[in-house]
Design a protein that fits this description.
single chain; alpha/beta; Conserved hypothetical protein from pyrococcus furiosus pfu- 392566-001, ParB domain; six-stranded mixed β-sheet; 11 helices; 6 strands; 52% helix; elongated
Length: 267
């Protein structure tokens, strides 16, 4: 029988448990990104040299131990044939919050949006009546516009999120709605983000046909259409984004206006 050690963390006095767990009883929380081969190779070499000395952090769910910190170490040790792992079992309520702290910080915009959306969906599934602006939710999600852009990525993984998220960020704040309603609003907003992306591409393609394209033209298109580029206060999405789309439609009809934008702005 596996020995366990129960104790409380020294600051919050939360109940924790240390024990060993068989590999077959472990699984990785779903909103971890895919391990990088180079990182796994480094960890494998490290474990070969010094052993597996840092426990995994897990929560216990439905008879399984779900890894919320240590995915890469788990993968590397599994490749070495490790069958049992030391784990720290923390209260389930900490799972999503810890994930927001423990994801790697060098994520690209698509990865940040995908993780934010996955965390958000877990809250929607488990606490649908909780308002989006509840402290537990806002602690776990760094930027709520990542959720909206994440929904857009689900429909079109080729959008340039890094280019368009600046516009979304200005007008897509926290909603004073239960999560069950907020997710529907964000889905509608994601559809508008996709519509704007189609129009940005249309303007870009039109400029290419006219021989007016350059490497930064996409950002110039967005700047020319952004209705909130001089705004000092957060904007309301349902007012600002339709204006953004309308301006992009106008630019699609007369793409050369994009290149005159600096002159027009100065007048």
């Amino acid at each position: 029988m596996t020995e366990t050690l129960e104790f409380k963390d020294p600051h919050k006095k939360q109940a924790l448990r240390v024990q060993t767990v068989r590999k077959g009883d472990l699984e990785v929380i779903k909103h971890q990104r895919k391990p990088r081969p180079a990182h796994i190779k480094q960890l494998t070499a490290s474990i070969e040299r010094i052993g597996f000395v840092t426990p995994l952090v897990t929560v216990e769910r439905d008879g399984k131990f779900v890894i919320i910190d240590g995915q890469h170490r788990f993968t590397a040790a599994t490749e070495l044939g490790v069958k049992e792992f030391p784990v720290v079992v923390v209260p389930d309520k900490l799972a999503v919050r810890m994930m927001s702290f423990n994801v790697e910080k060098d994520l690209n915009i698509k990865e940040r949006c995908q993780i934010a959306l996955s965390i958000y969906r877990e809250f929607v599934e488990t606490k649908p009546s909780t308002k989006e602006d509840d402290g537990e939710i806002t602690d776990a999600i760094e930027h709520f516009h990542y959720v909206t852009v994440g929904l857009a990525y689900e429909s079109n993984g080729r959008i340039a999120g890094g280019a368009i998220e600046g516009v979304v960020r200005k007008c897509d704040g926290v909603l004073d709605k239960p999560l069950s309603e907020a997710i529907e609003i964000r889905q509608q907003r994601a559809e508008q983000v996709l519509e704007s992306w189609k129009l940005i591409k249309a303007v870009e393609d039109a400029l290419k046909e006219k021989g007016m394209w350059h490497s930064m033209v996409r950002y110039q298109i967005i700047a020319a259409a952004d209705p909130a580029k001089r705004a000092r206060k957060p904007q309301e999405f349902e007012k600002a984004f339709p204006k953004f789309i309308k301006k992009l439609e106008e630019l699609a009809e007369s793409p050369e206006k994009v290149l005159r934008q600096k002159v027009d702005d100065a007048e």
